[in-house]
Design goal:
Length: 220
């Protein structure tokens, strides 16, 4: 069995998406699934080659960041091009999965992106098997999951997910629910964000407004 793992981040191998995909591939290979990586942005002009490659795999996994509650523009463009190219080639049954790396702590923030990916899978006559979202994913900082102590639960979740993917089965409700918890406690994440914002304000010698667009703050 072979799997194509698509990396949606423009940062390629230095991205959080790649860190997640890399760990997942290790678990899939232990399930005798041969994994191939393709960076979407780097293959903009090689759509025909990707389509031919898709014709030889059993599984497609998209690992992508979430930008403003939606997929990155280059990812949606890539998906549209793949669909148009597939219309002119032979199609086969392929299981599709998506992993969303989200800055938001709420898992439902990825619902729109999940629906877009599902519709794309249906239009391509693929078999959509589900989406999971990783909340506060930017905390990974593009470093291998093995080097982050707080990723223990995430690593366990990806191991369980790899089991479903290797079988070509839909993501179970048990695994989906496990991914609902963000990487870090929400209160801790907010505190870190506040400190980072204050640091930026201090760096550029500006006033730290909590609500900068309120009229009274604009008039100051």
């Amino acid at each position: 069995m072979q799997a194509l793992i698509l990396i949606g981040s423009p940062k390629a191998n230095k991205s959080n998406s790649f860190s997640i995909a890399e760990y997942l591939s290790i678990k899939l290979q232990r399930k005798e699934v041969r994994c191939h990586f393709q960076n979407i942005l780097a293959n903009y002009t090689k759509i025909s080659d990707i389509v031919r490659f898709i014709g030889n795999v059993d599984i497609v996994v998209l690992v992508t960041p979430l930008y403003s509650c939606a997929l990155p523009g280059h990812v949606t463009y890539f998906m549209e091009r793949i669909y148009m190219e597939l219309e002119q080639s032979s199609k086969r049954e392929i299981a599709t999965f998506m992993i969303v790396n989200s800055a938001f702590s709420e898992h439902y923030q990825s619902d729109i992106a999940s629906e877009i990916f599902k519709n794309w899978s249906d239009m391509c006559d693929f078999n959509y098997h589900g989406t999971v979202a990783i909340g506060m994913g930017q905390a990974l900082k593009g470093i291998s999951l093995h080097k982050r102590l707080f990723t223990l639960r995430l690593r366990r979740n990806l191991t369980l997910l790899a089991n479903d993917i290797s079988k070509g089965e839909s993501i179970s409700s048990f695994i989906f629910d496990r991914f609902k918890d963000p990487l870090l406690p929400v209160w801790f994440y907010k505190r870190i964000a506040e400190l980072q914002v204050k640091h930026k304000f201090k760096k550029y010698n500006t006033k730290p407004f909590i609500k900068p667009y309120m009229r009274k703050n604009i008039n100051d």
